[in-house]
Amino acid sequence: MATDTGKWIRYGLIALLFFGTALNYLDRQVLALLKPTLQVEFGWSDREFGHFGSAFQIATAVALLGIGWFIDRFGVRWGYGLAVAVWSLAGMAHAYASTVGQFVAARVTLAVAESVNTPAAMKSAATYLPIRERSVGIGVINSAANIGAILAPLTVPWIAITYGWQEAFIITGALGFVWLIFWWLGTSKLTPLGDAAIAATQPKEKGPPWRELLKERRTWAVAGAKLLTDLVWWFILFWAPDFFARQFGLGQAEIGGPTAVVYALAAVGALTSGILFPILLGRGMTPNGARKSSMFFYALLILPIPLALQAPNEWMAALIIGLALFAHQGFSTNIFGMTADIIPARQVGSVIAIGALVGNLSGAAMLEFAGWSLDSGYGYTPMFAMCASAYLLALLWIHIMQPKLEVVNSAE
């Protein structure tokens, strides 16, 4: 009976992390979905709107430098709970902002708090889930980002039309405090398992300094790939609702449907992204060939994205952009898989952090560039061209840095 109770407590943890991650993506998308209404309300230029997105990405990048210390200092239960409380308040604060500076301040606070989500969720899985449940748990948690990205366009425009744009921020932010009640009650009996229990009583082993990692071509292979490809995800996440509104003349109530289609296809990509590589391995390919062939396949799927600019309607455009995000998930999964293969185990976390840092910074640059391009009359053409070429360039970069991927972490 005690064993069954512990199992259900752990399943409850997975559910809580799933919904916390879904809220993370729900809250960050509210501003982008309300752009048509807010641009009329405040008279923002596209460049000013781009500042909101870039401020979020830069704040996230800076916050990543200290998230590990924060989680280690306060623990998952207190640290993650505090982060959700702060980002929920920051989301609600958007409702009371009236100037660009106030919106930027709310976005920066939201970004810093939301950056805790993934490290805290992964540490929770490593600390409280046995290895046989851990992989499934992490997969469920990772899928939540796409669920949040789908739910946001299906709910936020309706709330704004029905109750007002301020209420859209307040209602979505308030959901975090409902989640906090379940988090506090549901994690009260969690105890570390196995190695995590031992590690909790010992000094934490520090990873290698970044200056050492930056001397490694393997690190640059990962960082360059993230720099070139993450900007596509952040660009579409932030600007897709505006693209549908601008390109097809959709109103506030109409942009949710095609935006949801885009992220539904991204969710399918996330769920299937780990399949191709082992299939190619099973057919006799080397890890180097299988990994790079997988990346090449997904890079080809992204090439048609500029055709969305010529699509006859918003639904066809949504399918084209959704195919690109489907492929992004596949390519991104292979970057993470490559990292786990070629980077020594004790360095993986640090290299992933470096990749996330440069990915957020390139995303900030892309969002600023999009605002400039739209204000300058160039439209979405330059950004879609960059998206189409980014993944082939990333694969070329990986091949230049690592002509042959040498696996150092093998399960065999």
Automatic annotation (TrEMBL):
<dbReference type="InterPro" id="IPR050382">
    <property type="entry name" value="MFS_Na/Anion_cotransporter"/>
</dbReference>
<feature type="transmembrane region" description="Helical">
    <location>
        <begin position="220"/>
        <end position="240"/>
    </location>
</feature>
<feature type="domain" description="Major facilitator superfamily (MFS) profile">
    <location>
        <begin position="13"/>
        <end position="406"/>
    </location>
</feature>
<keyword id="KW-0812">Transmembrane</keyword>
<dbReference type="Pfam" id="PF07690">
    <property type="entry name" value="MFS_1"/>
</dbReference>
<dbReference type="InterPro" id="IPR011701">
    <property type="entry name" value="MFS"/>
</dbReference>
<dbReference type="InterPro" id="IPR036259">
    <property type="entry name" value="MFS_trans_sf"/>
</dbReference>
<dbReference type="InterPro" id="IPR020846">
    <property type="entry name" value="MFS_dom"/>
</dbReference>
<feature type="transmembrane region" description="Helical">
    <location>
        <begin position="293"/>
        <end position="309"/>
    </location>
</feature>
<feature type="transmembrane region" description="Helical">
    <location>
        <begin position="379"/>
        <end position="398"/>
    </location>
</feature>
<dbReference type="GO" id="GO:0015134">
    <property type="term" value="F:hexuronate transmembrane transporter activity"/>
</dbReference>
<keyword id="KW-1133">Transmembrane helix</keyword>
<feature type="transmembrane region" description="Helical">
    <location>
        <begin position="52"/>
        <end position="71"/>
    </location>
</feature>
<feature type="transmembrane region" description="Helical">
    <location>
        <begin position="260"/>
        <end position="281"/>
    </location>
</feature>
<feature type="transmembrane region" description="Helical">
    <location>
        <begin position="78"/>
        <end position="97"/>
    </location>
</feature>
<feature type="transmembrane region" description="Helical">
    <location>
        <begin position="315"/>
        <end position="336"/>
    </location>
</feature>
<dbReference type="GO" id="GO:0016020">
    <property type="term" value="C:membrane"/>
</dbReference>
<feature type="transmembrane region" description="Helical">
    <location>
        <begin position="348"/>
        <end position="367"/>
    </location>
</feature>
<protein>
    <submittedName>
        <fullName>MFS transporter</fullName>
    </submittedName>
</protein>
<keyword id="KW-0472">Membrane</keyword>
<feature type="transmembrane region" description="Helical">
    <location>
        <begin position="163"/>
        <end position="185"/>
    </location>
</feature>
